[in-house]
Amino acid sequence: MKRRDLEKHLKQHGCAFAHHGGSHDHWVNLNNKKFATVPRHREIPAGTVTAICRELTIPKPQGKK
Questions:
Q1: CATH code for the part of the protein at 3-53
Q2: Is residue 50 a contact partner of residue 60, using CB atoms and an 8 Å limit?
Q3: CA of 24: how far to CAs of 20, 32, 37, 62, in Å?
């Protein structure tokens, strides 16, 4: 999945960018204050996307690989 598509999905589910890390960005779910790190790569593997969504307790994107 492209990073910009993942970021759009995160925003649609109540998450917001928190701050930059070394090679990752940190995102927070504003509803439950859970954090996750998102790598700064153009393409993010499907397993990583699933793990990020699980950490933020939001549904994983449908129909995207």
A1: 3.30.920.30
A2: yes
A3: 6, 21, 6, 24
C-beta separation of 28 from 15 below 8 A: yes
* pLDDT digits 0-9 by tens, 36-53: 999 999 999 999 999 999
Measured CA angle at 16 (ends 13, 17), to 5 deg? 140
Task: Please determine, for residue 64, whether its predicted confidence score (pLDDT) is greater than 90.
Answer: no
In this prediction, residue 63 carries a pLDDT of 72
The set of residues, in sequence order, having a beta carbon less than 8 Å from that of 9 and lying 6+ positions away, is 53, 58, 61
pTM: 0.92
Q: What CA–CA distance (Å, rounded) separates 23 from 64?
A: 24
> Where do the structural domains in the chain lie, given as residue ranges?
3-53
